[in-house]
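Lab notebook, bench 4. The sequencing result for the construct came back, and we need a structural model before the next group meeting so we can plan mutations. Quick request posted to the team channel:

Model the 3D structure of this chain.
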Amino acid sequence: MGYSRMKVNKVSEETYIRDFIAGYGHLMYEPIMREKLETFLESFSNGFDGFISDLLGELRGVTNADAASIYVVDGNILRFAYVQNDTLVLDETSGGDGENLFAGKVVFINDESICGYVARTKRPLLIGDVRKPPDSVPFRFNDEYDRTTGYETISVLTAPIIDDIGELAGILQIINHKDEDGEFAPFEDWMLGYVLLLMENFFPMISRSFDRFRGMPEQMLPESPDRVFAIHDMYDEIRGQLYRPDLKSNQKLPWLAGKGVSWTKRDRVKELNISKRLFAFADYINRFDDVSTVIDVMLTEARDATSADAGTFYLVEGNDRLRFAYVQNDTLFRDDSRRNYYINSEMPISRDSISGYVAMERASLNIGDVANLPPDSPYSFNRSFDDASGYHTVSILAVPVLGSGGKPIAVVQLINSKDASGRAKAFDDFDVRYVTLLSGQTMPFLTRSIMTRRLVESMLKMSSLRDPLETGAHVHRVGSFAAEIYHRWAENKGVDSDALRIEKDTIRLAAMLHDIGKVAVPDAVLKKPGKLTDEEYEVMKTHCSSGALMYSAADSNLERMAYEITLHHHQRWDGKGYTGDPDLPALSGEDIPICARITSVADVLDALVFSRVYKSAWKFEDAMAELTGGAGTQFDAEVVTAAIQVSETLKAIVERYK
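Done. Here's the predicted structure in token form:
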């Protein structure tokens, strides 16, 4: 394989071996490097299993490299772990995607090879042409890979991967940078800076991925600041120097010029916590399917990380509206009622309001004191909420959640960051940085949850074409009723908060599907305006078993719960209910799945408070009294108790989805 038109610079010792600045703080305040890093953070959504592949893809993309490989430290050797290569077409026997290529290959940690030398010294190398090494270097290029595959390595960037206690975890090697003409060329200085920045920022994730490769239990990041400083302190030994002291030029790289940022240990802890929290958050939020839970989880995390007293989440509707989706406020909402989560309001996307401005400009706003906005501000603070509630807004941080193509899909607005004494203060730079990254990391999960909700709604539209009672408002009410009743029932039972949130997320969606089986009921029965005959009633009962058939091969928690709810939501506590299938007899008491017991109460409540062709709407209080009267016979008494305890929230749901 030849490259006759290859542009290869002559390599001298001065450019062959280069020390680096690990001054993490220097790099993070360089706009270009920071933007690239944040873009990768925002795009990462594959979880731990796909992280190494994503990491190599990111590094190769930024450096425009043809290939890259990873070696993992195992005692006093480096063990080959992963490779990507655009030029080589790997066949199935070699692993297809490169994972098994050279499986079992090891490199000794010594000065005989490039990777071994970097592993021993813990210093990176930039090599413009491996075929022309200076005589003064102790190592030589090992061409085994090239000889075996027919590949031709020219330029390499080799860097140590340091773990969470400052020890060598592995080696990254990036091969053959391509210039604008697509020809192989030496790597540029700034590329080394970005590689080191990315690996240092992601070292907890890399360490966990390496543990999986070795088959070891995942090691969580140590909590002791003294231990996590080890990685930074190792770099501090050469802080401020890019080239070795004995080299002719001591000029810093352009992207480091004039920075000179000195970070305190407190700053380092905060920056390290950003990475740690983001990865923990991604792993946690991936458990949820429903958009309401995703929003709740994201808003809770944003407020917790920034010590914000309150927060509001707006979803973009169409191209010109922001729809209120969720609110949290520790000062105002101190009771157990969640009724404020169902406030129904919207605002235009315009420069008049803070959130509207953020959505329109697709840029964050950090306002230290809303009472002292500059006279020429294009936006204004709407005081109507403060005036109506008695709340006092001081500081606001509003951040857009941007989808594909940079289009805004939501705005998260945080209010009143609290200091140690509980007084409202301005959000700081770390708060802005974290919430910006958090919004990017939330985006794929939010988009997925919105699509899941729309898929459920599409299925329900099919049902509504058959049954005029199965309106979107009806199923949203039943889903929300069920979610909030479950929330209180689970709290009463002492269910773990994480388990509560996961089940609540699922029951909201599954309960919306409770009557999906009505699509199988004939129109003559389904749309009959009057009372059904006994024979017609038996046909109507089959909607339970027909709906369950759709989920009989359930392989997810949502499908499992949808099966239980569709089949059992007309069961009764006293055993006098039905499934619609004679081979599936009625159940009683706690043999009925709890999700079905809860949905039964939610469905009856909605049927009572809204009119039907055969009845007028009941007052909410009368409907609750009817539920109470059926406790212990038709309904699970503990579920009815939970419904009574959250009655104010259930009223708010009625108003939200009229």
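The longest strand covers residues 168-178.
Will bring this to the meeting.
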